[in-house]
Amino acid sequence: MFGKLVNLENLKNLKTQLQADEVKLLTSLRDLHRSKRKDAQEASVNVDLTRGQRVADSVAATMGSWKFIIIQSVLLLLWVVLNVTAYVQHWDPYPFILLNLALSFQAAYAAPFIMMSQNRQQDVDRKAAQTDYEVNIKAELEIEALHQKIDQLRELEIVNLTQAVKNLTDILHNAKIEIKPTP
User: Angle at Cα 140 formed by Cα 134 and Cα 142, nearest 5°?
Assistant: First the structure.
């Protein structure tokens, strides 16, 4: 009977210890996650883009749109048709050297803007990936804590069952001794 009380006290102490340790760990992880989320929200709300960054984003958004592609295609087609069919003056005859120069200038001028926009987007993506990594680490730690708790509870249950079997065996053994007839 005394062994049962000791095991029950150990069980209560173990539960208290597990709960206290888990509460501490999970509280610290949740606080860390909340502060990271709050910082990320503040950063996204308070993003003060420079004029150059806003221009780069605007140029990249404009040049990457269907509207721009369609308008540019119509203008190029119009340029070629007017120069091929012009009766009075051909301002840019067949090899269309002026058109090639204009398109080369457009590409050379637009490329740095697009690269700046992509670099800034890459920084945003990198921060999001870091946040995802930290969330995954938190989930992994929580799962590991649950595994440890289940393992400890299972071990404690095995100890208690072993003790119960031993107690029952002792009771049966004592009962056999008492039942035996005296010669």
Answer: 105
pLDDT (tens digit per residue) in 108-138: 999 999 999 999 999 989 999 998 998 898 8
For 49-68, what is each residue's pLDDT tens digit?
899 999 999 999 999 999 99
Neighbours of 56 (CB within 10 A): 21
Burial (CB < 10 A; 0-12, 13-18, 19+), residue 31, is exposed
Which H, E and C letters describe the chain, residue by residue? Answer: CHHHHHHHHHHHHHHHHHHHHHHHHHHHHHHHHHHHHHHHHHHHHCCCCCHHHHHHHHHHHHHCCHHHHHHHHHHHHHHHHHHHHCCCCCCCCCCCHHHHHHHHHHHHHHHHHHHHHHHHHHHHHHHHHHHHHHHHHHHHHHHHHHHHHHHHHHHHHHHHHHHHHHHHHHHHHHHHHHHCCCC
What pLDDT score was predicted for residue 44?
A: 59
Which positions ≥6 away from 141 have C-beta within 8 Å?
Answer: 25, 29
Q: What are phi and psi of 175, to 5 degrees?
A: -65, -40
